[in-house]
Amino acid sequence: MSITEWNIISNVVHAFDTFSPVREIRRTIETRNTAAASSLQFDINQSIQLITSFSNCLQLFISSTPDFKVLTTSEQWSLMQRNMFGILAIGALYLMRESGIFDKPENELVVVPLYGSEVVQQAKQISEHLAFDPIVIKLMLVALAFSSNCFTNHNRESMDRDSLLLGTFRLFGSQNVYVELIWKYLIYRYNYNESVQRFCKLVTRLLDTIKLSVETYETNRTFQTCIDNIIEQSEKSPVINKQTIIPLWGKH
Questions:
Q1: Residue 243 confidence class, pLDDT cut points 50, 70, 90
Q2: What's the structural domain count of the chain?
Q3: Which has the higher per-residue pLDDT, 40 or 13?
Q4: Has residue 250 been placed in a domain?
Q5: Please, what is the Cα angle at 92 between 159 and 232, to 5 degrees?
Q6: Could you tell me if 74 and 242 are in contact, meaning their C-beta atoms sit under 8 angstroms apart?
Q7: 146-180 residue pLDDT tens
Q8: CATH number of the domain to which 34 belongs
Q9: 145: which residues sit within 8 A by CB, 6+ positions away?
Q10: How far apart, in whole angstroms, are the C-alpha atoms of residue 15 and residue 69?
Q11: pLDDT confidence of residue 235
């Protein structure tokens, strides 16, 4: 791997960690699990607030990439509309694991009001099989952000405003850079056969995660409303603004 490629990896990790809410969430959970607060229960609004914090982290993370900044404002909005569902599904699972939500049954109560116990247990099971290098996960999130579509639902009323509707080929160059970088990083760390196995397992778990999220979206009206609001608000986010500058990308 070249120095430039290592710098890109460093930038990706730096940007993600800068916006990550993991430390704050861990502190909140630990406070509520103290003896003095043991009787307190998480409610649906707190669960939604948690998912919203995940969404904000991921939007800011993606917006810090130079590939995102070269898009027009309308293209940035279209990209978020297309892919925020998939990015949030995978990013939230990773952030839940890093926040310690799956470490103890009492910690899981922070997301149960929104997802339900059964879905939380399924997510936990997927997470256990996603015991993967965090660098790969962070690179994969960027790669997924430049997919043609991760929404997987057809109820988008704003389709006629999609700036990428007539062609997503320009996204391929950005996505290809990060996918190739993932592969090079795997080869650097493991032998060829193990890299193939790890990459295949990663893709399988990502598909499992999106499938679970879609099923939850279709059967859980509260979760559906939460996701719809997050995607709708992505257009109004300060991230989607030509005047917004996030001076993170490119720092060494």
A1: very low
A2: 1
A3: 13
A4: no
A5: 25
A6: no
A7: 987 765 555 555 555 666 665 667 788 888 999 99
A8: 1.10.565.10
A9: 62, 65, 68, 79, 83, 87
A10: 14
A11: 63
Q: What angle do CA 196, 199, 200 make, to 5 degrees?
A: 85
CB 214 within 8 A of CB 152: yes
Range of the domain at 179: 3-152+168-236
Neighbours of 3 (CB within 10 A): 7
Kindly state the DSSP code that residue 2 receives in the 8-state scheme: -
pTM for the whole thing?
Answer: 0.85
Q: Is residue 210 part of a domain?
A: yes
On whether residue 129 sits in a domain, the answer given is yes
Binning pLDDT at 50, 70 and 90, where does residue 104 land? Answer: confident
Residue, of 75 and 7, whose pLDDT is higher: 7
Q: How far apart are alpha carbons 60 and 63 in whole angstroms?
A: 5
Q: Which residue has the tokens 């997802």?
A: 115
**Which DSSP string corresponds to 44-112?**
HHHHHHHHHHHHHHHHHHHHTSHHHHTS-HHHHHHHHHHHHHHHHHHHHHHHHHHTTTTTSHHHHTTTH
Q: What is the pLDDT of residues 83-100, one digit of tens each?
A: 888 899 999 999 999 999
Instruction: At 68, list the tokens.
Output: 């995102």
Computed over every residue of the chain, the mean pLDDT equals 83
The owner of tokens 């699972």 is 93
159 found inside a domain: no
Half-sphere exposure of 86 (CA within 13 A, CB side): 24
Q: What is the DSSP secondary-structure string of 211-228?
A: HHHHHHHHH-HHHHHHHH
Select from 97, 96, 95, 101 the least CA-distant residue to 33: 101
